[in-house]
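Support case: user asked for a sample of complex input and structure output to validate their parser. Sending the pair below.
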Amino acid sequence: MEDNDMVLLQDYLEGVLGSTQKKAVENRLESDAEFREKLVQLKLARHIISAEEDMELLDIMHQVDASRQANDHKQNDNEKRVASFNRKWIIATVLAGLIVILFSILIRLQKIDKGMIAQDLLIKEKSFAERGNESVNLDSIIEVQYIIPMKNIRELALEQKYDEALSGLDQIDLGYPNIIQNKEYTRALLLYLKNGRNDPTFHTILNKILDDPTHSCYSLATQLDSRVNNLWGRLKG
Amino acid sequence: MSIQKLNIAQQKVLIAHLKQGGDKMSESMKTLYQNYHYENYLDQYTIEYNTSIAETKDFLQEAFITFIKKAKKPSFTLEKDVNVYITSIAKNLIQNHSRRIKTLALESNDQKEYGVSEPPSILYLKKETQQALKEIMAQLNPKCRKLLRFWSHGYSYDEIARKLNFTSGSRARQQKHRCMQSLLEYLPLFPQLKDFTYGG
């Protein structure tokens, strides 16, 4: 059942009452506490209606904000993932580059520097040419003046003809650092073997040098034990 | 999810949906808010008005709420981009706030004590109050809720009657009185709303 007072007060709040009715309501509000309380209740109800509707809007805003945040997080995660992926690739590329450089250095260290030899050989080449010979191939000079004599030395060493091997070694007159170095190690090893020190390590090293005379024996020499170093020191002395 | 920027024609359709109420209204509010990138204004307003980022964010969000309420009113017509309305509301809110703070600083403590305090905005209501508001309105039937909302937006009873299929404006008015009364009947169940005031 409708409460007439409430209807009256709602009309009063909406401002639709005529002036006489409005005056009557205001007079009653001054004197009637219960009537006043009803007005307070109605005002409260209006506040509730207004606020509850805004609550719906607020809920929507929260949902959208949450979805935005989730998207931002997702985007950040993706960016981080891409950055980490890129970082990994950069590190891998740098490492690969370093490895390639390192290998090329090692390979270069292991090979006789043909460039250096070529430079020094120019003089010989020139003198050959002056003597009317045909132009000389660098590889054939190394073959004739170094590799073939070293192979002969190997044969002599196998036959334990150490003196002949040593004199063959003296006849190699290519004065390039790697060849000189190989010659010196070979000489040391031949002398060692000649003196009856039949150590398998020295055989191995000698064989390695003589198997591939173009191979720099620097890395082999660094592996030699202290006995060879001492021997080398004594020979130098 | 990327939201394409809405043109004025699209925004007008959304505003019309806002006025219709119901699901379309909720969808429109969502789309408009998705289109409102308040974070774009955060830094600018924080520096310009010397506020904190958190305060500026509250003002920008409150501006959106205020705009939606204005847009729901039958007299509102959209003439510019929605963001223009919202940002100008936000600027007003921030300026009024700074003015109020300056005035308070000039007043004596006694005056401050008896000064008129503004009812809280929806953004600052306690969680339990928010929950109670939802629950008390959920007690009403959906038609009552719709009716009270239209009435709260300032629709005439004739307009409400047309929207909600009442035979006449006076029927709508009678129904509104009933809905209001049933809302008041539920009030004792929610003592946390006893002294509730809302300035929204």
